[in-house]
Amino acid sequence: MSKADATTRLHIPGTEIEVPADATSHCFALIDCNNFYVSCEKVFDPALRDKPVVVLSNNDGCIVARSNEAKALGVGMGEPYFKYKETIEKNHVRVFSSNYTLYGDMSSRVMSTLAGCTPQIEVYSIDEAFLNLAGCEHIHGYGSLEEFARAIRATVLQWTGIPVSVGIAGTKTLAKLANHLAKKSEKSGGVLSLVDSPYMDRALEKTPVIDIWGVGRASAEKLIKLGITNAKMLRDADSSAVKSRMGVCGLRTAAELKGLSCYDLVDEIEPRKGIISSRSFGNRVETLEALEQAVASFVCIAAEKLRDQKSAAGSISVFIHTSPFLRADRKYSNSTTMHLPQAGNDTGELIHYAHAGLRKIFREGYRYQKAGVRLDNIVPCQTVQANLFDSPNRSRRDRLLKTIDYLNAQMGSGTLKYAAQGHSQTWRTKCELRSPRYTTSWDELAVVGSS
DNA sequence: TCTGGGGTCCTAGGACCC
DNA sequence: TCTGGGGTCCTAGGACCC
After folding, report:
1. CA distances for A398 relative to A390, A392, A418, A445, angstroms
2. Which of these, A67, A158, A171, A414, has the minimum number of CB atoms within 10 Å of its CB?
3. What is the DSSP letter of A449?
4. Phi, psi at residue A422, to the nearest 5°?
5. Which pLDDT belongs to residue A283?
């Protein structure tokens, strides 16, 4: 298919990142359930309507969902419960411990409703999905994308009781941004499209960098120091400045804000590359025996998930750490990875290795509050053949470009990652084949070429 | 003249997402 | 006093192999 060819073509000198040839022809919708966990609770108890409600994390430690009424009281997302206890009691906020079985079930109902609306859907998280809306409004006989999106929204609400917001745009990052604005704007009615929108610049201007999908706290701080405070400024920023602060991810985000799609819809569910089962203990755990018991039960959970996805673990990691809120000099953490002689998913065997790892790291520490276990799957490894160069007199840069041509021709898919590694007093080039999504940049090649 | 070059695996940390 | 859990990807350096 021509689309596959376009997405795998390697970087062309002079541009910062590779962008697929059809990057401007997409139409994504991001459907996001409003206050999802709270909305689930409200479905099952209509008396909660218009009441302030919050849902707490495991161990009732943090607030992980808030109704609009609770948000209005200033209750923060991801904040520890005890900080807001007073506000919550004073305002008769209803408090729920999380019920992930219920949320998982409601999520499947929402997702299957959405799947019935369009042929292509990517379930992005428990409460979000990307849809490919290209051409859909005509198939279903609607006059516009927005009209179609409003119909989807009404269907989900009617069939599941869950209110959703819809953002529509040419890239995933812009669809996220549109969704964000749809949630904030009263008059949007929960649907906002930035496709061919005269308000694009204004929408970007209104969005602070921290609210951009892919920009977290660390990058936001760096961008603000550069004077880049909103999405429009990031879109129009100098690429090399963005690259040096945020790496290739930053370049992709900036490209997506320009309307060049770098992230495609992923509609196949890949097996997990690692499985983590970990828990904070309610109280301090200090003996090896207690930790062994905890680790054994975590391994059981992880091994079951492993068998569910029909994988086998090649290694198992165990980690322990004290509360992250202790003073620096009281903190301790340690971890180890045990390699299995043969990949497996037998609980007993995995517990055996996990315990061996735990004993190893326990000797070095003194007090632990958290313990967990992680399984790493065997990941197939892709290889690039060497012996690409026959003429040793060619300049390095020239040879690298030859390599790119060669691999383009040979592999058909996949892209190269280049890095320079100091070795003796000279530079060494490294190239690894990675999955097709990753791209290289001219900057890196230039460093190698000029050294 | 010009220190070799290509490649794998591992570790560890950082950043981001929900 | 009380601060979640499960993920992905990227970067960089080092050891080691032929």
Report:
1. 12, 11, 14, 10
2. A158
3. H
4. -70, 135
5. 77
pLDDT at A423: 25
The whole-angstrom separation of Cα A210 and Cα A216 is: 6
Q: Does residue A384 lie within 7 Å of nucleic acid chain B, judged by its CB?
A: yes
Say what the pLDDT of residue A115 is. 96
Residue A224 structure tokens: 């603000």
- For residue A301 the two structure tokens come to 């959970």
Terminal Cα-to-Cα distance of chain A (whole angstroms): 39
- The whole-number pLDDT of residue A376 equals 63
* Catalytic hit among A128, A146, A256, A444: A128
Measured CA to CA, the distance from residue A303 to residue A16 in angstroms comes to: 43
Residues in chain A where the model's pLDDT stays below 50: 1-15, 378-451
How long, in residues, is chain A? 451
Which of A94, A59, A58 shows the shortest CA–CA distance to A75? A94
For A17, which DSSP code? Answer: S
CA nearest to A271, candidates A355, A188, A379, A174: A379
Rounded to whole angstroms, the Cα distance separating A21 from A120 reads 20
* Exposure b/e, A361-373, CB count within 10 A at least 16 = b: bbeeeeebbbbbb
DSSP at A2: H
pLDDT, residue A217, reads 94
Q: Is A128 a catalytic residue?
A: yes
Give the integer Cα–Cα distance in Å for A42 and A302: 31
Predicted TM-score (pTM) of this structure: 0.81
User: What is the Cα–Cα distance from A213 to A37, expressed in whole angstroms?
Assistant: 21
Distance, CA of A395 to C1' of C7, in Å: 42
pLDDT score recorded for residue A12: 32
**Is A449 within 8 Å of A396 (Cβ atoms)?**
yes
Q: Residue A428: count other Cβ atoms within 10 Å of its Cβ.
A: 12
Q: How far in angstroms lies nucleotide B16's C1' from the CA of residue A173?
A: 14
- Which H or E run includes A156? helix A145-160
Could you check: is the Cβ of residue A431 within 7 Å of any atom of nucleic acid strand B?
A: yes
Cα–Cα distances (Å) from A371 to A145, A352, A377, in that order, read 49, 16, 20
Following CA atoms A442, A27, A172, A121 in sequence, which dihedral angle do they give, to the nearest 10 degrees? -120
